[in-house]
Amino acid sequence: xxxxxxxxxxxxxxHNPACGTSRNTLAMIRxxxxxxxxxxxxxxxxxxxxxxxxxxxxxxxxRELMRDKGTPADELGLLRSDATEAAILSAMIAHPILVNxxxxxxxxxxxxxxxxxxxxxxxxxxxxSFTKEDGEVxxx
Length: 140
Known about the structure:
The structure is a single chain. By secondary structure, the chain is an alpha+beta fold. It is 29% helix and 14% strand. It is globular. The two termini are 25 Å apart.
């Protein structure tokens, strides 16, 4: 069985193809011999149970998982200290762009992969080195 078809190490990436960090992370997964399930969350959106599961597995709160750059977070009042986790979670469902990316899930755990090389910890066979889109070489 080849690594790409192995069912014992499933990789899922919640991906934004317009994001360089997300593209680099996806390429690193593939360089490690895995073809992940790619979820374009801007197209599919999020559900509350899905976000709660990812938050629990990653150990991140909704606030920690929220992206503020290039999103409506500020205009929605989500950057205020009194914004509740419930309000942030609800806004993430209404505005999928509010969820930071990429999030990667493997049998080794779930992680927000910023920087992209954080994905190495989640892979069973990370590449020995990887050259990012900007030319930076990273190693596990």
